[in-house]
Amino acid sequence: MAQKFDQFKTTINEISDIYNAIALLSWDQQVNMPHGGSENRGYVLSTLERIGHQKITSPEFGQLIEDAAQEVSQLDPESDEACLVKVARRDYCKRIKVPARWVVENAQVTTNAQTVWEEAKSKSDFGLFRPALEKVVALKREYASFFSPYERIYDPLLDDFEPGMKTSEVQAIFNVVRPEQVALIKAIAGRPEIDDTFLHVPYDEKAEWDFGEDVITFFGYDWDRGRQDKSVHPFTQSFGTGDVRITTRFDPERAVSLLFSTMHESGHAMYDQGFDKSLQRTPLSTGASMAVHESQSRMWENLVGRSMPFWKFFYPRLQARFPGQLGKVDLDTFYRGINKVEPSLIRVEADEATYNLHIMLRLEMEIGLLEGALEVKDLPEVWNVHMQDYLGIAPSNDSLGVLQDVHWSWGMIGYFPTYALGNLVSVQLWEAMLKDIPDIYEQFERGEFLSLLKWMGEKIHRHGAKFEPQELIQKATGSKIDPQPYLRYLKNKYGEIYHL
User: Fold this and answer.
1) SS3 call for 246
2) Distance from C-alpha of 26 to C-alpha of 410, rounded to nearest angstrom
3) Residues paired with residue 245 on neighbouring β-strands, in sequence order
4) Residues 182-195 as b or e (16 or more Cβ within 10 Å = b)
């Protein structure tokens, strides 16, 4: 390859190393760091963020991008080299609009905000978190201003997680999904309630932990390149395809919650472990978008982990682990129990039929915060009113309500819509996969899951961020994000479970 591209690639590798170091420190903050370390950690992260930002926005790097673009101009536009230059140029053009002082302040504010959020959540006291969140929201409003003019102030933040998508596009998709899901929930509400009392008795944490690790080993999660730890909020962190870590949490009030969390995070992790090795230490060695990432986690958690074929293989093993709790519970009762539709206060515990409504609520609130129609001080009250309107329930305290998610403390405003979009994409990919592997359910019943992982690896994982999400989804399925497969899936699955 030509000289300028080689120089460009060397710089890209160095920048990637800096951000992997930032990621490692962030992982440590959530898993190992003592509570008193947040201030010093904030300084360290802000310094590294400043160094990374300066390096990636320097005029010299900008020129290297243009020189490299000239040298790869005759290559296939889908080659690794051409895609790397394209993505680097897009990232550069965004980052040069953001002042270094904003990057430093954002790192300090969000590092502190996360620690404050953890304390506020444990005490169920939004007042503790409010000042930190006000700073986060102010910073995000300022961030959006760097990209003016825009159609909606939310657009620049959404674009960080879902490249190329506009707020209006997401709202149009949600406007199709919302009435269909509301109608399904109303229909289910008229049916006899499903018994899931066996899920609300004590389960041993270690046994559940071990079972979850067994399951994702069958899935294909590579333990030579990963590990699982505890955190307040489950997440996946990658430092390169050779080191992709997941976390989970145990909730004594919700049996097998840990298991589904582990399956969910393994979906993220197997995506990260599946990037082509040629993309390592570059901005292509990441997911195409968070919606594509969520499609993988939701797929393994729900389309696999809540399916009957999956449990035909695993349920006898789970019963053997928990004979006292499940020994007298037959497979059909268990399957119906883990798929029970019931409005839930907690997003991560929500069933498939109600989950997207949690996301739509958060989207409306984030847009309101950025546009000034909603102030931080009013969040708890507005949250409770929206929960009542959307799901017919309201939290009794802040921990069960406005403080339940960590994302705002991280400054990740714009992220939430990708969860619901990921649900839609997961089934869209599933329908495409079924055409190529029509006996996939029979394979699940035998405990065989690697055909699914291989298909996703070929169609999605190996490409990393070479293509924008809509382009990648169209390549894999033949169309851009389409809500209809997901709606068909919900109607078919829950129509059968609830005899609609």
Assistant:
1) strand
2) 10
3) 237
4) eebbebbeeeeebe
Range(s) of the domain holding residue 333: 167-497
pTM for the whole structure: 0.92
Catalytic annotation present for 371: no
pLDDT one-digit tens code per residue, 259-312: 999 999 999 999 999 999 999 999 999 999 999 999 999 999 999 999 999 999
The per-residue DSSP string of 62-112 comes to HHHHHHHHHHTTTS-TTSHHHHHHHHHHHHHHHHTTS-HHHHHHHHHHHHH
End-to-end CA distance of the chain: 61
Q: What are the tens digits of pLDDT across the range 345-368?
A: 999 889 999 999 999 999 999 999
The two structure tokens encoding residue 166: 């506009």
Query: Does position 14 have pLDDT exceeding 70, yes or no?
Result: yes
Contact 239, 20 (CB under 8 A): yes
Residue 156 forms part of a structural domain: no
Confidence bin at 1 (pLDDT 50/70/90): low
Contact 52, 100 (CB under 8 A): no
User: Is 198 in the same domain as 310?
Assistant: yes
The per-residue pLDDT for 24 is 94
Residue 127 CB neighbour total at 10 angstroms? 11
DSSP state string for 24-36: HHHHHHHHT--GG
Which neighbouring-strand residues pair with 229?
247
Instruction: Please tell me which residue in 169, 265, 294, 366 is annotated as part of the active site.
Output: 265
What's the domain count of the chain? 2
For residues 80 and 8, what is the distance between their CA atoms, to the nearest angstrom? Answer: 14
Contact 133, 376 (CB under 8 A): yes
Whether residue 51 is found in the same domain as residue 195: no
CATH of the domain at 381: 1.10.1370.30
